[in-house]
UniProtKB/TrEMBL annotation:
It comes from the Eukaryota. The lineage of its organism: Eukaryota, Metazoa, Ecdysozoa, Arthropoda, Crustacea. V-ATPase is a heteromultimeric enzyme made up of two complexes: the ATP-hydrolytic V1 complex and the proton translocation V0 complex. It comes from Notodromas monacha. GO terms for molecular function: proton-transporting ATPase activity, rotational mechanism. Subunit of the V1 complex of vacuolar(H+)-ATPase (V-ATPase), a multisubunit enzyme composed of a peripheral complex (V1) that hydrolyzes ATP and a membrane integral complex (V0) that translocates protons. V-ATPase is responsible for acidifying and maintaining the pH of intracellular compartments and in some cell types, is targeted to the plasma membrane, where it is responsible for acidifying the extracellular environment. InterPro entries: ATPase_V1-cplx_f_g_su, ATPase_V1-cplx_fsu_euk, ATPase_V1_fsu_sf. Gene3D superfamilies: ATPase, V1 complex, subunit F. SUPFAM superfamilies: AtpF-like. NCBIfam families: V_ATP_synt_F. Transmembrane segments: none annotated. This is V-type proton ATPase subunit F.
Length: 122
């Protein structure tokens, strides 16, 4: 049994090099038993299909509970993210160094706004 299976579930990252390196230095990097990493470094040669495929791979993995994705790349696969409705793995959009976070684009916040009205917070 791998260490990650004993310790708990993983966080996956789909992001630019700076984002992935930061999380890897923080200790999130793992390989599963098939030697597949829990991160994707997106660069200028990465296609939308590559991002979509890796997202689907992360969703199918039983050892991943959270997927962090730079919002700029989430926008590229928004049609896929909007169809992901299961709570686990949770998909969280995060900013990148070159692209600030825009809460109006975040699919989780849009869903939450639809569940509550302003009257609920008074």
């Amino acid at each position: 049994m791998a260490l990650s299976e004993k310790a708990g579930k993983l966080i996956a990252v789909i992001g630019d090099e700076d984002t992935c390196v930061g999380f890897l230095l923080g200790g999130i990097g793992e390989l599963n038993k098939n030697r597949h990493p829990n991160f994707l470094v997106v660069d200028k040669n990465t296609t939308v299909g590559d991002i979509t495929d890796r997202f689907h791979d992360f969703v199918k993995r039983s050892d991943i509970d959270i997927i962090l994705i730079n919002q700029v790349y989430a926008e590229m696969i928004r049609h896929v993210l909007d169809t992901h409705t299961t709570p686990i793995p949770a998909v969280l959009e995060i900013p990148s160094k070159d692209h600030p976070y825009d809460p109006t684009k975040d699919s989780i916040l849009r869903r939450a706004r639809g569940m509550f009205s302003s009257e609920d917070f008074r």
